[in-house]
Specification:
By secondary structure, this protein is α/β, with parallel strands linked by helices. 27% of the residues lie in helices and 23% in strands. β5, α5 and β6 form a beta-alpha-beta unit. The protein is globular. InterPro entries: Methyltransf_11, Methyltransf_Superfamily, SAM-dependent_MTases_sf. One of its GO terms (biological process) is methylation. Pfam families: Methyltransf_11.
């Protein structure tokens, strides 16, 4: 048992972190923090809601994957599914979802809540599916913010989609990287360069990464999407709704009414 005096607070820094280091660090982080995450955010996410981000943009209203009545019978891959709330909603519309996540512990929460659809533990950069297996793919803050090679992941997603397939993913809005990650007034003043792509890394006393997040500008994201063979058909920047009075990390009504917090990219393959 770790004594309180032995507890170590990870050091936050900005440094390079490659594909393997990022995957190892983030798998470990989500396994360690899945329980706390589900306790803290489970009520907001619900068991079977499809929410694109902390603003609360709901797929029921957004229809970024298409009208709900057209989802019936569609094969859908959810990447970075967590407890599979989005997949559970998709199943409720008559779709055939597969929920994939890097973290075993997150998928245990999906099992706890339940649902009659497959759960798959795998890396988004090595999807264990045949070419053309899915009609649609989605990722609500899953995988893309945490990978060092987003083009490779996007190409993998394109590979498993059928012609005409759509991939919709949400990430922290890139402009947020220029501001402190604070929900109050201190989070409203620019403190860093928007153009600094150096990853954010939390590391242990031996310098081993225990959490990694990667920054891409809006332009980078668009170029990544095109380089992977997708067409970008929409870019949604959800506004903060009046009903949402909750704070989620650096997201808050104060900041959300002034600067965007989430970017949702709607992509299609030929």
């Amino acid at each position: 048992m770790i004594q309180e005096s032995e507890a170590f607070e990870p050091e936050a820094t900005r440094r390079d972190a490659g594909v393997a280091e990022s995957a190892r660090a983030n798998r470990g982080w989500w396994d360690r923090n899945a329980d706390e995450y589900q306790v803290e955010h489970g009520t907001f996410l619900g068991d079977d809601r499809f929410v694109w981000g902390p603003e609360g943009l709901d797929e029921v209203e957004a229809e970024l994957l298409g009208p709900p009545e057209e989802l019936k019978g569609k094969d859908v891959l959810e990447i970075g599914a967590g407890a599979a709330q989005c997949s559970r909603w998709l199943a409720g519309q008559g779709a055939r979802p597969v929920a994939l996540d890097l973290s075993h512990r997150q998928l245990q929460h999906a099992l706890r809540i339940g649902g009659a659809f497959p759960l798959v533990q795998a890396d988004a950069g090595a999807l264990p599916f045949a070419d053309g297996s899915f009609d649609l793919a989605c990722s609500a803050y899953g995988a893309l913010p945490f990978v060092a090679d987003p083009v490779h992941v996007l190409r993998e997603v394109r590979r498993v989609l059928r012609p005409g397939g759509r991939f919709v993913f949400s990430v922290t809005h890139p402009i947020r990287w220029a501001f402190p990650d604070e929900p109050g007034p201190e989070g409203l003043s620019v403190a860093a360069s928007y153009f600094d792509r150096t990853p954010y890394v939390e590391q242990d006393e031996d310098g081993r990464a225990v959490y990694v997040e990667h920054h891409r500008t809006i332009g980078d994201r668009v170029r990544d999407i095109v380089a992977a063979g997708f067409a970008l058909v929409d870019l949604v920047e959800p506004e903060w709704p009046a009903w949402n009075t909750a704070e989620w990390g650096g997201w808050s009504p104060l900041r959300g009414n002034l600067i965007p917090g989430t970017a949702v990219f709607v992509c299609e393959r030929d």
